[in-house]
Amino acid sequence: MADIERSASATWTGTLREGNGTVSSGSGTLNDTPFTFVSRFESGKGTNPEELLAAAHAGCFTMALGAGLGRANLKVDKIETTATVHLTPQTSGFKITKIHLITHGKVEGITQEDFAARAEETKKTCIISQALSVEMDVEAHLET
Prior knowledge:
With 144 residues, this protein is α+β, with helices and mostly antiparallel strands. It contains 4 helices and 5 strands. It has helices at 37-41, 49-71, 112-125, 127-131; strands spanning 8-13, 20-25, 33-36, 75-90, 93-108. A 3-stranded antiparallel sheet has the order 1-2-3. A hairpin with a 6-residue loop joins strand 1 and strand 2 (20-25). It is elongated. The N and C termini lie far apart (39 Å). The model has no long low-confidence stretch (mean pLDDT 92).
């Protein structure tokens, strides 16, 4: 089976503080969605990369936890997960220092302890969790 590829793009114009950008996804779900310095590092209208990472992680984790519970023949009524990305100031800028996942499930035939253990295992195996430490490469092309 061939790789499944998903893509998104971002554009930024102007200086860091006064500039602005947009992000778009290959599916069109995001289409020139705005982001700015204020929406990223303060509290302003628009999205930001950390929020998008949190959404991706919450979605992936929730789906993976549901799949694992289903494979164990447990009936999942509902799973909800919130992912909070912690962006911490450093002497040389900012760094993502933590992602906190809170998941709530309504699942028949499981104990709290087993649900927590399965959530802990899913944290290690969900695709986005694994991607956060994956090899990356970059191509840089300068326009003249």
